[in-house]
Amino acid sequence: MRKLVAALALVAVLAPAAHAGGWATVKLSSTPNGARAGAPWMVNLTVLQHGVTPLDGIQPYVRISQGTVARSFMARPTATTGVYRARVVFPKAGMWKWSIWDGFSRTHTYKPVKVTRAAV
Known about the structure:
The protein has 1 helix and 9 strands, in the order αβββββββββ. By secondary structure, the chain is α+β, with helices and mostly antiparallel strands. The protein has a single domain (22-115), classed as Immunoglobulins (Immunoglobulin-like). 18% of the residues are buried.
């Protein structure tokens, strides 16, 4: 009986640690290169646990920032497991930082992008 209790205690301690070591990759259907201020950039995010298993039931988002201006755009699930779609709008022209929270383990950062003025 003591061994069973000890084994269960060990499992209770190690189970959260196993999840804490997880990571995910994010594949993008496009980048915001060529984006125009005020026009939507539609992007699909494919989120894979350990680069292999599509993740379902997470809440990834795209975050953009320029100086003190920052916006976050939730990515919604599509009909394909592990694929989420976000509609991102840069409010004005200029250089923007952007990143993606994968909804699972970390924020993925990318090179800043130059957003051009809205078409007239």
